[in-house]
C-alpha cells in the first residue's frame, strides 16, 4: 500500500502514516479525495476542495489572504510548494490557496485534491482552477486573483518553498496605507554555479517578482492586473510593478517574508531556448520607457549588435571572396565572441561540458538576441535597441 501524508497542525509538520516508508513528500502518490463540490466560476469548471457549510468553522471567519499559484505540468514541484503553503503559521481559517492549472491535466489535479483531503478540517481552503485560456503565467494569475476571496493576494510560483512565517510577515507589512509588498527570494547554490544558475540567482536582487509578492485585491482591480500579452514568465511582474509605481501605490519590502526558490536542473544549451523571451522587453519598453531604462537596462547591448554586424560582414566577405572585408570582420567577430564567452566563464564552472556549452552558446546568443528583439519591436510596434 502506498503511503499518504498525515497533516499534524499541532506539531506543524507532516508525519507519515506508514513509518516503514520514508520517501520524500514530492515522490509520494496522493489519492484523490472522495469529497468535492463542483460549481461554475468565471465560465470554467472549478473544484472547491475544502467544502463549506458542513459544520466547519471556515465560513464563519473572514478570509484575509489568498495565495495564488499558477502551474503547468509540474505536479511534483507543485506538491512540494503546497506542502509549505499549508504549514504556514497563520490561522488556516483566514487564508486560502488557489491553484490555477494553465495546462489542465489529471496529475496536477490529483496533487491538489490529495492535499485538500489530507488537510480538510485542519488546513486552509484549497481551490483548483483549470484555466480556460488565454494561457501564460500572466493570464493564469489574473484568473486566480479574480476568483480570490481574500483582500490581500499573495503571489508565488509552483517551484518555490515558503518559509513557515512567510504569509504572516507578508500580511503584517500591510499597514499605514500600504498597497503592495515584496518579500525576499533565496536561491541556494551548491558549489561553483553554471552560467544558467548564476543568471537565475540574480532573481535574489530583484525588487518585485511574482515568486514572492503581495498586493491588495482592490489595487489589482485598479491597475487591471497583469498584462496578458506577456505570454512567457518574463517581464510581466516588472510591468505590474511599474504600473503600481506609476499609480503612486505605496510599496514596501518585507525582508522577513522569505521564499526559497530552488534552481531547477537545466538541459545543455538552456540559454538558447530562453533568448526568445527578450521579445517581451519591447512591450515593457513601450509601456514604461523611462522605468525600463532606469531599472532594467540603461543602454542597448551594442556589443551584440557589433558582433552580429561583424558576422554578417565576414559572411559577405566569404561569399564575395573579398579577403579585405571577410578576414578583418571574422577577427572582430572572434574577438567579441571570445570576450562574451570569457565573461560568462569568469565566475562559473570550468567543467569541460560547461566550457563547451559556453563556447557554442556564446556564438549563437548574440544573433538570436538581436533577432528576437527585432521580432518584439515589430510585434509591439516600438523601436528598442
Automatic annotation (TrEMBL):
Record's compositionally biased regions (Basic and acidic residues): 9-40
Name of the protein in its database record: Glycosyltransferase
Start and end residues of each Glycosyltransferase 2-like domain: 66-194
Alphabetical UniProt keywords: Glycosyltransferase, Membrane, Transferase, Transmembrane, Transmembrane helix
Keyword NADP: no
Molecular function, one GO term: glycosyltransferase activity
Top-level division of the source organism's lineage: Bacteria
UniProt signal peptide: none
Transmembrane parts of this sequence: 302-319, 325-343, 355-375
Family designation: Belongs to the glycosyltransferase 2 family.
PANTHER family for this protein: GALACTOFURANOSYLTRANSFERASE GLFT2, RHAMNOSYLTRANSFERASE WBBL
Region (Disordered): 1-44
Keyword Transmembrane attached: yes
CDD domains cross-referenced by the UniProt entry: Glyco_tranf_GTA_type
InterPro entries for the chain: Glyco_trans_2-like, Nucleotide-diphossugar_trans
Cited Gene3D superfamilies: Spore Coat Polysaccharide Biosynthesis Protein SpsA, Chain A (3.90.550.10)
